[in-house]
Amino acid sequence: MAKCRVFVPWSLLIAALALPSAAQPHKPQPPKTLRLYVFDCGMLDNADISRYALTREEISTHLMSVPAFLIVHPKGTLMWDVGAVPDANFKADGLPGTLNYATSLKPLVVQLREVGYTPADVTYLALSHFHWDHVGNANAFAGSTWLVRQRERDIMFADAPSTRTIFANYSALKTSRTVIIREDEYDVFGDRSVIIKSAPGHSPDHQVLFLKLAKTGPVLLSGDLWHYPEERKLNRLPIAEFNKDQTTASRQRIDEFLKKTGAQLWIQHDYLATMKLKKAPAFYE
Predict the structure, then answer these.
(1) Which of 3, 48, 111, 116 is the most exposed place for a label (fewest CB within 10 A)?
(2) What mean pLDDT is reported for the chain?
(3) Domains of the chain with bracketed CATH
């Protein structure tokens, strides 16, 4: 049987080669100024308020928000906290994902994709601290450079992590490219627009994030330095802090920093305030 040869005009070949390949994902273009995306990773139905030295009568709601944040800088990207519920806990039936008393309506990586990014596009990962409700999707960012303080990393990879289920959600970070932060303030991109600040006490090396946004103004993301706005207003200390004296000192220093910079304080677990924030794909700049 004779072989059939198909000849394609050169003009059509060149046009085909010029088309974007489906196998090559679109790389997001860096913005000209700093951007902040807020992802809604659900809520904590926190029944036990007593551990925060508060009563139900003293707070507006017992619910806690669980946001995650993508900071996009002309020189790279930073993921700050990654939710409580791992994306793997979402089922194909479309029901919410759950873990312990956390519920989330949409996987984090899906939300990330909706703004044009994948975990592979994230230059840096930083966690305010290692507690389960902040590290749910940490393994997805194991290919990023992890910015972490020594005592926090040490407790995360101690011989007997407190909860193996939680450990499984960040275990891949053990072999990540890692930068150990030793200074009080770590300037992520070298222009003082994104600064990780030490604020120990809630955990051994807890940290907070300062952002200098051109239009929104300066913002400080609190991690768990405070959980409820009433906790700050009434000057209450949670019962189970890693080191209460350090927490008191950290709060004092961050309050002074807020006055000095005029930064807005975003208490990450403040459910009512977080509900009002613009969520991705909208962004702050």
Answers:
(1) 3
(2) 90
(3) 29-191+268-276 (3.60.15.10)
